């Protein structure tokens, strides 16, 4: 890449999608204001940061404790170094259980490892049961937001999809009818499924308990009806104890929706016990996938993320391009940071530039991840690994000139006076419609302000004398 | 004795969540309220003493067919409006989630102020026995805004929650 | 406090592209009783290189900031908050040892202009007048690096409220970034322009006739787009409005361009 212009993988702002994104972000902004009135937000953020920092600092020991407790409760634990191994575990668990029908809850980790494709290849049907994910799966599309996977779709598109599936007509404005249809279809799937596959929001090491939040109820059904439960989790989701869990289990919905409790929170410790009607088998698949390599680096705080989605809602760039505009599993500010770190995807190189470094994400983050500073560090890292020669040469020249006051002043004089006659042919009261290299991209959409022939430092010297 | 402001706070949270709180002076009165709320609907109920005498046998139905879920809460959280319950023998998960309406009986002495106390109260703590295999906290009806951000109540879990709180 | 001697850090964008903002900053500080010094060896804070991922080049230029100001005393004032954020937030990470101590010393002395006037000089308003018809509707655009980076929003609003002849309007989602972001405005130009459009359209929808900020990068970006779209919006630096008699010297105005310009396109 030359470094001078970056193409967002899907080509920039998408006018078909932006109204939905703006609406969703607007709702979130209102909820966010509500959350800050409910609690001492800054104190809560600091506590949440501490809980996550403690967990990531002691990750190996907490994973060991988690495993011991899950096994003591009758569950099975499987370690996966990478996505391929994780998919392998899931497929093998299904095969051993003689299962070919699965229901899935929303899990970004499962997207990250391409679980859907691996299951399909193994002849295991896995229906997405989160409504947004169900729609996206049925359309052969990809989710575009951590919390609202179908945010980029219209109700008309959904009505059309359901009409194709069912042979009935749906009124796009009758959202309740659309939801009711999906509920009916999915209920049959839940009842027929042999395996329920879910993600995990937090894992409490001290008792081996998995916490999963939701608003629809599909997680409860997926962990109640099928006889096998497989929970897939990135290792960084572990926390030490219930004190931390009590705090984070409120922080997550507060940051995401502005309320201190999700509609349903399931706390799962092993398979069904004591005459309970739940799954006979419970399997926890722990995915490293490049996470432990981030510990001990300046990027460690990125592992604190609790996947609340707040940074996506806050980000002014995300609101223009949407999740698909990033072209990767994890989008938005956290996606721009962790995707290059997990070194998963080919497009990752350009992600750190999908930001104006405004800092809105840092302010929104419930665990205070310094995302803007990390993006700047990732930019430097990207240049070290794959120098953008033209741009590097420009900045080297700029630094050489501007690190000497006399050269700086000479640049100003050159730009202001020598180029001015050239520019003034195009100029109109200090503004022109064409800027020269390397600023020519500016004038594709904007007029450009010309350097003043008499910069401030010249005026000062003229008016005040001195050096 | 439960502080009246705890109940006030709980009621306010439930209101925000679009769930109903009914107050009864005794368990017997609570059973009567539950009976009223259920009306002629079919019911999937848990086996718990507190729930005896509310529903006639002929109105009981398997969870997958029943219109109403009738359960007992182990704890409730005033600060969030959530009710929490552990599953086990006689307290199947299916009966607690499949029907589209839910009536929850709650002993007022199980209403606590905050999430940390609630987790402790319901056995989610270290030191001693393993926690129950599955504990669920429900804050209001199930919902989704996945289609154009329009909020719809009632997806897979109940769309209506009524909590009947009584002094035991 | 007795009016101090203030070291002016004019910042490269103001120096080269908005020198009148520098002049008005000096005039204002002197009107408020300060003596203003201008260390002439200053160039730039180095931020463009750091943001683009060239920290070593940033340090070469930041070194000149340290040299220019290390031997001075008293408050350092800049009319552009983003550079203050660079010095306060990033310099500590760019340096270690003795240079880090120097940098920390400067970070403790540097202020953005509105905070200096309101918090250090203790002047919540300094007058000013918006010229022309009374009641021009003005929307204030906070620099992201001031709002999120420095945590400053009250001081500029306080000064704006002291300006006669204008009413303040609040566009929806006013906290959103305008899309300048330094080199971002070039690298993701289409997205940057879409962000500018949202900001300009929401200002117009709120009834604004002018947009005011202290970020000359934002001003260039918003005014550049407003001119291209021929929108009826004026764009000013806050200091332009704080002239006592509202003269607004040589402020560029947006007006329809004559039709004879096709040859230049």
Describe the structure.
In chain A, 47% of the residues lie in helices and 11% in strands. Chain A is α/β, with parallel strands linked by helices and 467 residues long. Chain A has three domains: 30-292, Rossmann fold, CATH 3.40.50; 309-385, no CATH class; 404-464, no CATH class. Chain A has a six-stranded parallel beta sheet with strand order 1-10-7-4-2-3, with helices on both faces. A four-stranded mixed beta sheet of chain A has the order 8-5-6-9. The longest helix of chain A is centred in the N-terminal third of the chain and has 21 residues, at 18-38. A five-stranded parallel beta sheet of chain B has the order 1-11-6-3-2, sandwiched between helices. Chain C is of the alpha/beta class and 265 residues long. Chain C has two domains: 5-120, no CATH class; 136-242, Rossmann fold (3-Layer(aba) Sandwich). In chain C, the strands form two sheets. Chain C has a four-stranded parallel beta sheet with strand order 2-1-3-4, sandwiched between helices. A four-stranded parallel beta sheet of chain C has the order 6-5-7-8, with helices on both faces. The N and C termini of chain C lie far apart (55 Å). Mean pLDDT of chain C is 90; it is low at 249-265. Classes of the chains: A alpha/beta (467), B alpha/beta (168), C alpha/beta (265). Chains in contact: A-B, A-C. The interface between A and C is large, with 80 and 75 residues.
Mind sketching the topology for me?
The complex is a heterotrimer of chains A (467), B (168) and C (265).
Chain A: H1 18-38, H2 41-57, H3 59-72, E1 76-80, H4 83-96, E2 101-104, H5 108-112, H6 115-121, E3 125-128, H7 131-138, H8 155-166, H9 175-192, E4 195-198, E5 202-204, E6 209-214, H10 218-222, E7 228-234, E8 238-239, H11 242-257, E9 264-268, E10 281-287, H12 310-314, H13 318-321, H14 332-342, H15 360-364, H16 371-385, H17 389-402, H18 405-418, H19 420-424, E11 427-428, E12 431-432, E13 448-449, H20 456-464
Parallel strand pairs in A: 1-10, 2-3, 2-4, 4-7, 5-8, 7-10
Antiparallel strand pairs in A: 5-6, 6-9, 11-12, 12-13
Helix pairs in contact in A: 1-11, 2-11, 8-9, 14-16
Chain B: H1 4-16, E1 20-24, H2 27-38, E2 43-45, E3 68-72, E4 75-77, E5 82-86, H3 93-97, E6 101-107, E7 111-112, H4 115-121, E8 134-138, E9 143-144, E10 152-153, E11 160-166
Chain C: E1 5-8, H1 12-17, H2 19-31, E2 35-37, H3 47-51, H4 55-70, E3 76-78, H5 81-94, H6 97-109, E4 110-112, H7 113-120, E5 136-140, H8 144-150, H9 154-161, E6 166-169, H10 184-187, H11 189-205, E7 210-213, H12 216-228, E8 234-237
């Amino acid at each position: 890449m030359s470094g001078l212009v970056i193409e967002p993988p899907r080509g920039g702002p998408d006018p078909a999608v932006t109204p939905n994104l703006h609406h969703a972000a607007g709702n979130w902004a209102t909820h966010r204001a509500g959350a800050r009135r409910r609690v001492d937000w800054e104190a809560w953020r600091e506590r949440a940061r501490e809980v996550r920092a403690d967990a990531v600092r002691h990750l190996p020991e907490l994973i060991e404790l988690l495993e011991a407790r899950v096994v003591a409760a009758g569950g099975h634990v499987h370690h996966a170094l990478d996505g391929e191994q994780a998919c392998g575990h899931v497929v093998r668990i299904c095969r051993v259980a003689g299962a070919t029908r699965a229901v899935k809850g929303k899990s970004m980790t499962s997207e990250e490892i391409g679980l859907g494709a691996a299951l399909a290849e193994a002849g295991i049907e896995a229906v997405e049961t989160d409504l947004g994910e169900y729609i996206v799966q049925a359309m052969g599309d990809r989710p575009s937001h951590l919390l609202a996977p179908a945010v980029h779709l219209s109700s008309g598109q959904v009505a059309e999809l359901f009409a194709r599936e069912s042979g009935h007509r749906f009124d796009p404005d009758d959202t309740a009818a659309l939801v009711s249809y999906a509920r009916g279809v999915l209920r049959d799937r839940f009842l027929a499924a042999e395996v329920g596959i879910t993600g995990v929001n937090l894992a409490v090491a001290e008792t081996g308990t998995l916490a999963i939040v939701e608003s629809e109820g599909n997680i409860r059904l997926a962990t109640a009806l099928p006889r096998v439960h497989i929970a897939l989790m990135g290792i960084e989701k572990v926390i030490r104890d219930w004190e931390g869990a009590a705090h984070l289990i409120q922080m997550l919905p507060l940051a995401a929706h502005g309320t201190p409790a999700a509609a349903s929170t399931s706390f799962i410790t092993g398979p069904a016990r004591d005459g309970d009607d739940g799954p006979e088998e419970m399997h926890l698949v722990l995915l490293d996938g490049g996470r432990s390599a981030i510990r001990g680096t300046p990027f460690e705080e990125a592992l604190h993320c609790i996947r609340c989605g707040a940074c996506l809602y806050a980000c002014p760039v995300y609101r223009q391009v949407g999740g698909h505009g990033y072209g990767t599993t994890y989008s938005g500010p956290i996606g721009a940071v962790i995707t290059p770190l997990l070194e998963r995807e080919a497009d990752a190189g350009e992600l750190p530039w999908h930001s104006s470094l405004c800092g809105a994400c840092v302010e929104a983050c419930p665990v205070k991840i310094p995302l803007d500073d990390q993006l700047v560090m990732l930019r430097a890292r990207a240049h070290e690994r794959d120098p953008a020669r033209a741009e590097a040469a420009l900045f080297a020249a700029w630094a050489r000139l501007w690190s000497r006051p006399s050269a700086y002043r000479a640049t100003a004089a050159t730009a202001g006076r020598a180029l001015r006659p050239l520019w003034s042919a195009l100029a109109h009261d200090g503004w022109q419609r064409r800027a020269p290299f390397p600023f020519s991209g500016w004038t594709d959409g904007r007029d450009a302000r010309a350097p003043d022939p008499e910069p401030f430092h010249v005026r000062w010297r003229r008016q005040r004398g001195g050096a | 004795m439960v502080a009246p402001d705890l109940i006030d706070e709980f009621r306010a949270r439930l209101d925000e969540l679009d769930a109903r709180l009914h107050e009864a002076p005794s368990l017997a009165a609570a059973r009567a309220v539950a009976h009223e709320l259920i009306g002629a609907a079919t019911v999937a109920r848990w086996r718990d003493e507190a729930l005896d005498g509310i529903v006639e046998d002929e109105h009981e139905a398997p969870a997958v067919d029943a219109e109403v879920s009738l359960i007992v809460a182990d704890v409730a959280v005033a600060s969030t409006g959530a009710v929490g319950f552990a599953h086990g023998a006689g307290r199947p998960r299916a009966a607690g989630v499949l029907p589209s309406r839910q009536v929850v009986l709650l002993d007022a002495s199980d209403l606590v102020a905050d999430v940390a106390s609630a987790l402790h109260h319901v056995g989610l703590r270290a030191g001693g026995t393993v926690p129950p295999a599955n504990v669920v906290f429900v804050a209001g009806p199930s919902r989704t805004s996945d289609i154009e951000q329009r909020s719809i109540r009632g997806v897979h879990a109940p769309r209506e929650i009524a909590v009947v709180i009584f002094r035991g | 406090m007795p009016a101090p001697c203030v070291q002016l850090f004019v910042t490269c964008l103001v120096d080269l592209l908005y020198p009148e903002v520098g002049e008005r900053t000096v005039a204002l500080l002197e009107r408020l009783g300060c003596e203003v010094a201008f260390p002439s060896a200053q160039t730039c804070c180095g931020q463009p290189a750091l943001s683009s991922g060239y920290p070593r080049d940033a340090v070469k230029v930041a070194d000149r900031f340290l040299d220019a100001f290390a031997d001075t005393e008293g408050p350092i004032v800049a009319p552009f908050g983003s550079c203050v954020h660079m010095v306060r937030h990033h310099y500590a990470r760019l340096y270690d040892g003795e240079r880090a101590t120097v940098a920390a010393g400067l970070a403790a002395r540097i202020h953005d202009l509105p905070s200096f006037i309101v918090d250090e000089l203790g002047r919540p308003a300094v007058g000013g007048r918006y010229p022309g018809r009374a009641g021009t509707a003005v929307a204030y655009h906070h620099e992201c690096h001031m709002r999120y980076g420095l945590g400053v929003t009250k001081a500029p609003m306080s000064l704006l409220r002291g300006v006669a002849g204008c009413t303040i309007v609040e566009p929806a989602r006013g906290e959103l970034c305008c899309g300048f972001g330094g080199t971002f405005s070039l690298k993701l130009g289409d997205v940057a322009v879409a962000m500018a459009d949202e900001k300009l359209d929401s200002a117009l929808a709120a009834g604004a006739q002018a947009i005011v900020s202290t970020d000359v990068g934002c001003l260039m970006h918003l005014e550049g787009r407003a001119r291209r779209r021929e929108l009826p919006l004026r764009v000013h630096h806050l200091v332009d409005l704080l002239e006592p008699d509202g003269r607004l010297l040589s402020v560029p105005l947006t007006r329809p361009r004559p039709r004879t310009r096709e040859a230049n396109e």
